[in-house]
Amino acid sequence: MTLRDSARMARHTLALGLRADRRVTIIVGVLVVLQAGLAAGLAYAQRHLVDAAGAHLLGGLLAAAALGTLVYALQLIGQRFSHNLRNDLRDRIQMALEQEITETAAKIPTITHLERADFLNRITMLRRGTPALAKTGWAAAHAVSALAGIGLSLWLLIGVHPALALLAVAAVPILPLANRAMRMQRQALDATSEPLRRESMLHDLCLNPDPAKEVWISGNGAELDRHARTLWEEAGDLEARARLRGLGGEIGAWALYFVMLAGALLVVGLLLIRGQATLGDAVLAISLAGQLRLQQYAAVESIALVADGGRVAEHHHWLLGYAAEHGVRPATPERRTPAPVRPDSAVPARLTGGIELRDVCFTYPGTDTMVLDFGCDPGGRRRPARARPVRLGGRVHRHSAGLSQAPDPCGRIGRRR
C-alpha cells in the first residue's frame, strides 16, 4: 500500500459520489468542513460565557450563549444529517465500484488469468474489501477535517499558555504507532488471503450439493473439513498475533498522552491560582483537553479507514493495470452501452472450414515451462486427449508461439501467431 494508491482511490470515490448525486455530495462536504471548527468554537463560546458572567456583561453573555447554541446545534444536527447522507452515498459508491470491478475483470480476454493463484488472491481481497474502498474518500475528508480541528484547538490552548502546546508533542507518537499497528494488520490480511480462499473452496466442496454427494460418499468429508478448519485457524492466529503486537505500541502512546494531559490541567490550575488566567481560560482548557482526545481518536480512526482502503486500492490499481496490458480500457458510463450486433454475425449451422494449429506452444504466465507443444492439421489427425487445443482454437487461451487459424461465424478464416 502506498500513499499514492490511497490518494488515487480517495479522489476516485469522491468523483463517484459526485456522479451519483452532486447536490448531496456538496452538502456533505460542507458539513465535513464545518465540523473542523465545532470543538474550538464551543470551547471559545464557553470561555466568553464564563468571563462575561463574571464581569456582569449582558451583551457578551448573550453573544456567547448564541454562539454556543449555534455551534452545538451544528454539532448535533449536522453530524446526524451528514452521517445519514454519507451512508447513502457510500452504498451508491460501493455499487459503482462493484460494477467497475466486475466489468473490468469480465473484459480480460482468455481465461489464463483464472488459473493463476496471484490473480485469484487479488480478486478475492478486492471483492472482500469493496466496502473499505467505498469509505476511502469520505474517510480522507474526515481525517483532514479532524487534523484541522486539532490545529484550531491547539491554537486556542497556546493562547492560554505556551506550555499547553506540549499536548501536541504528546500526541505525536499516536499516529505513527497507530499506522504501524494498521500496517501489521494489513500485512497479516494479505498473508491470509490464499489460506482463506482455499478454506472457502474446501468447505464449498462439502456444502454444495453436486460435489458434496461424491465427497461424503467417498468418505472424504471429515478429512476436507479438518484441513479447512486448520487453514482457518492458522489464518485467525496470524491476524490475532498481528493485532496484539500493534496494540502494545498504541497503548503506550495513549498512556503518554494522558500523563501529559494531567500535567496540562495542573498548569492551568496553577495559572488560575496565581491570577495569570481567568476562570474562562480554565473552562476552555478543560473543555479542549477533553475534545482534543476525541479529535485525535477521530483522526486516527479516519486515517485507519484511509489506510484500509489504500490496501485494497493497491489490488484495484493492479487489476486496472493488468486489464490495460491486455487491451481493456477503463469502464466509463459512456462505454457501458453494449456494442451493436453485426447483421452478418449469426452462428452458422456447421463450419465450412477446419481449425488448423501449426507448431503451437503454450506456457503459463510467469514461467518458461512448456505445457503444450504440438501441431494439428485441418483434419485433426494429430490431437492430444486434453481440451487445451479447443481452448487455444477458441481463443480462450493465448498460445505462446506457433500459428492457429480458424473460421469465424461468417466462414472467414482468422489467423493468429
Helix/strand layout:
Elements (H helix, E strand, L loop, with lengths): L2 H18 L1 H14 L2 H17 L3 H50 L9 H12 L1 H31 L5 H6 L2 H18 L1 H15 L1 H9 L3 H54 L4 H47 L30 E8 L6 E7 L11 H6 L7 E7 L5 E4 L1
Antiparallel strand pairs: 1-2, 1-3, 3-4
Helix pairs in contact: 1-2, 1-4, 1-6, 1-12, 2-4, 2-6, 3-4, 3-6, 3-12, 4-6, 4-12, 5-12, 6-12, 8-11, 8-12, 9-10, 9-11, 11-12
Account of the protein in words:
The protein has 417 residues and is α+β, with helices and mostly antiparallel strands. 71% of the residues lie in helices and 6% in strands. The chain contains 13 helices and four strands. The chain has a four-stranded antiparallel sheet with strand order 2-1-3-4.
Shape: elongated
Largest sheet: 4 strands, antiparallel
- Helix/sheet category: alpha+beta
Give the amount of beta strand, in percent.
Answer: 5-15%
Q: Please estimate the helix content.
A: over 70%
Mean pLDDT: 77
Instruction: Write down the Rg.
Output: 31 Å
- Total helical segments: 13
Helix-strand pattern: HHHHHHHHHHHHEEHEE
The low-pLDDT segments are: 341-345, 375-385, 407-417
